[in-house]
Amino acid sequence: MKTLGSREVQNKFGEVSNMVLRGDDIVVTQYGKPTLAIVRYEVWEEAMKLYKAAKMKEYMEDLETNEAAESLSLDDINKLVHELRP
User: I need a labelling partner for 5 at 20 to 30 A (CA). Which of 46, 57, 67, 83 fits?
Assistant: First the structure.
């Protein structure tokens, strides 16, 4: 993983994108503080699936202790399921 300043990323975006395509992950800093990451699309896609699954699990666990769960409609459940699909 490489760390680059936002100005360097802006000025050398072509080089940075090639670095990412070769497999490097880039952390971008602003004023010395990490603010975002640049990763290959496949890595981002998998990370989002895991993130959404964790959010769904958290939501379902909250429903188990929440009486509002009984009021979920079939449409509500379908919306939740479709959020997990790419």
Answer: 46
